[in-house]
Write a structure and sequence with these properties.
This protein has 2 domains: 68 residues, Orthogonal Bundle (Arc Repressor Mutant, subunit A), CATH 1.10.10; 35 residues. The protein contains 6 helices and 3 strands; from the N terminus they run H-H-E-H-H-E-E-H-H. Strands 1-3-2 form a 3-stranded antiparallel beta sheet. It has 126 residues and is mostly helical. A hairpin with a 2-residue loop joins strand 2 and strand 3. The radius of gyration is 22 Å and the shape is elongated. This is Transcriptional regulator, ArsR family. InterPro entries: ArsR-like_HTH (IPR011991), HTH_ArsR_DNA-bd_dom (IPR001845), HTH_MetalResp_TranReg (IPR051081), WH-like_DNA-bd_sf (IPR036388), WH_DNA-bd_sf (IPR036390). One of its GO terms (molecular function) is DNA binding. Keywords: DNA-binding, Transcription, Transcription regulation.
Length: 126
Amino acid sequence: MIDMHAFDVLGDPVRRRILELIADDEKTSGAVSDVIRAEFGISQPAVSQHLKVLRENGFATVRSDGPRRLYVVETEPLRDIDAWLGQFRRFWTPRLDALATEIARGRREQRLSGEDGTDPKQGSDR
């Protein structure tokens, strides 16, 4: 097994894209390969190597279904990364909360002024 740091694994845009592809539901290696080859212009063996790195480092699991190999995201390493990132959330969470407040304020002002296409005298169903 390759002993790579999680951020080394995720530092590669091809591997991040593969995880995006298999995040919602399992995909065949062929389906993953088709998308990655089209988007990144790499060979099928190169895609297989990226799948292998994800598998060997615990980010993906594979199961056989007859001749097909189906890949799915393994969540444990991602939870570990999320936990590590937790110590830094304090830097951006207040800013994101402030941004959400400003966006809501702007929408309210648009609604009250009628700039959003509604009649301010009739109110809105939103």
